[in-house]
Amino acid sequence: MFRAVRHAVGLSLVSLILAACGGGGGGGGGGIGFLPTTPPASGGSNPPATNPPADDPPDNPPPPPVQPAVSCADLNGKSLPASLISLPTQGATVTSATPVAASDAGNTLGDYCRVRGTIQPVDPSSQSINFAVNLPEKWNQKTIHFGGGGFDGVLIDGTEVIRFGPAGKPAPLALGYATYGDDSGHQSGSITDGKFAANDEQLANYGGNSLKKTRDVAQALVLARYGVAPKHAYFLGTSTGGRDALSYIQRWPFDYDGVIANEPALNYTGTRLSNVAVGRALYYNNGTDGWMDLSETLMVQKAAMQACDKLDGAADSIVSNVESCRQLNTQLLASLRCPGGTKTAKTCLSDAQIATVKAIESPLDFTTYSLANGVKRAGGYNLLEGALVAGPFTTRDLGTRNVPANPATSADANMYVTGDQWVKFFVTRDANFNTLTFDPLNPGSYAARVTEVSNITDATNPNLAPFFAHGGRLIMLHGLADEVISPNSTIDYYKQLIATVGQASVDQNVRFYTVPGMGHGTGSFIPNWDSLAALEGWVENGLAPATGVAVDAVAGTYGRTRPLCLFPAWPKYRGSGSLDAAVNYSCVTEVGDPLACPNLPAAVTSYKGGNSFGEELRVQIDPATMAYTVTIDASLQRAAGTVRTGTLVSEGNCSYGSGESGAVFSFGAGGVLSGGVNAPSGGGFAPLLAFQNTFQNAATPMVFNPVANVFNAVGVQQGTGGTTAQALAVRLRNLGSFQYCRDPVSGGFMIYDASCTQTEKGYITYNGTRGSFDLFTTSPTGGAVTSGGTLTGSMVIGLVSGTAVPMHLVRESAANAGMRLFGLQQSLVSGTADGSYALLSVKGENHDATVAGSGLNLGGAAAGLSYDTPVLGVAQADAGRSGNFIFNSGVLAFVSTDAAKAALELGVRH
């Protein structure tokens, strides 16, 4: 009976629409009473979000779907009068209404009615608006309006899945939503074609008018087909569509219950002015100075990633701590600058190229005029904080030629192409205008026109109080590495929103997520999460979203997760557990000075240690100037007293570049330093380890009790016979004697046994002159002695936060020189060694390494870990990066079982 009544109602509504055919005119909202502007199901406005009562859980089953009151065919060819559309038009026509069956080939959207039509313009020279409405046979009483993209011109047909939604989730249409979209009132084969803007009505439609017109038509068709209005209406948009979502609720705040604005181009005019500013820098002096080719652009991106990747605690090719990274801009640009600022090689940047980098990076501050809503700023792009404007993680680049065409084409910088179209057709309306002559900071006679266009196209009105007042909810999401739409403009808007409506109102009604590594649908991290479910839970059940979990959709890292942090928080690695699991990250708001290192000494300090050639040395650090001096104290390869000097340059995270063939120095907690010194022969650097405090027993030379113990030892033998990794057990006794043991089968690790057959024995005695222990080798067959023997090297026993870290420096002969590091032969529990490390290899390489529970990532190679294997205190890595490591007080030493890899890598935990 009810369906029969609704069927009659539906037919009467269609008849009413038909009766008005030809009624046209340019009228406004005279007939708008026919179409409620807010869904009436809950008596009008939605109440503010509150937690649902205990007896009304949010997972109550949804109401049964609504069946159509009229057939799809009844809509075909019908017209809607201009009086049903709030803004001036000549009415709308349904050009087709086609039933689509779930069983149709290729259809995954269920049974629905596919409606297509046009909305006729008032200006006969303007193009019509093409619209699409999809009406499911089983309607869930909700509608979704999808926004556009770029310069539009392509029909948004409403059949798409949720942008950045969970993998495998069906499109909203398939889930029972009535969906709709349009082409913004012009047609083009390219979303970077701006010619439409030369017509006032088409420009106004693009600025938002087409959205309202399409919404009014779509809601009329929904009402006509089902006989009831929707209970909830949502708007989803990305990029230009995100701008559409915000523009809509700023202008017509009562039409939608909730909106999602992904990477919104809200400061639209500021974005285009920034595009022009980048082009002017890039093509300065006919491109002979400022243009950067692909290799130079990638060099900038690589330098930024190397400087900032680890500021969040994880080496994962994602810059999460963006604002700390921003503090490195000056130093980073200085490191990229060619000597004197004049281009000398492809490996550095001229001053003009640095100006281009700054034009991309820096905001535009308008001092001579304002944009819509008093906006005086356009955010820059985070090029020096991890944004990728070229390379494999984006579809954009800075072009392939240093002089652009007029008009610019796809061979030119992507940013400039859209800026060029905007100047030609939005502002000057001169298709031949040379955009490079247009000054964004001082547009001269075009200043008033820029502001006028801004008022048409921008979505920067921060007064969302009317939208919030009826219970409207807003979710915004923006990638911090967006290379098309600046996330900093969205951040500026969010701050202005707080300033306008207050923090409490924003906290109640807005969720703003920023995503490190995410570009404009591109980047090294592309989040998948169910934003629509989050919005619906908020609007319909009062469950406000909090920190979410995003799944990475990038092919090479697919499936890893990160917390989806609310601005201004960012995901910081906790220091243990898998780097690919969100649970091991915390959303934090801290912004520290990345150049500051808490592990630096307070005054000029000397560190004692040695390197992989068995050379004993001292490293002096002046924290005021970061000058370093490496002095060789004992060596078989060069004279004692040999000195190397230089200045350390911060790379963040307590790591510093040096003049030692690229060796990176890192300061660990407890007074330990890793680094490198130019090798005595063969080029490259020799890894070194040195300690601010060392054990010495000059007053009681036979007392070693504080440091005596049973250890595992790993090391390297370097000499005329080549380079060989070493793995042993060793006991250091109370009187200073020692004994090494090797497994008789593997020649490697074993549980220490005083009766081992493959053994080395000796003793150490303190040398006050050098501040180390002379090491003597004795007969392997005799008992433990502390006299006689042959001097074959030395031992430095570092004290890291009071814990002994012995290091044996082998200087037996030209064929046998090297180093061995000790770690206790006791259980190494998973998690103890977790953290990020700066390692140096005997091949003269710097590698980042991360230990996270049962996982190791060393220099980009991932491996699983087995602890206390093959003996207590040793971790064994599988074939992903085969080898073993020991850990002692923040020092990690890894020996490889892969002959192609460095035999030994060592370093400290950040």
Fold and architecture overview:
By secondary structure, the protein is of the alpha+beta class. Helix content is 19%, strand content 29%. It is built from 14 helices and 42 strands. The strands form seven sheets. Strands 1-2-3-4-6-5-7-8-11-12 form a ten-stranded mixed sheet, sandwiched between helices. The chain starts with a helix and ends with a strand. The model is unreliable at 1-58 (pLDDT under 50).
CA gyration radius, whole angstroms: 34 Å
Helix fraction, binned, reads 10-25%
Strand percentage lies at 25-35%
The number of distinct helices, counting runs of at least 4 residues, comes to 14
Structural class: alpha+beta
Unreliable sequence segments: 1-58
Q: What integer is the average pLDDT?
A: 92
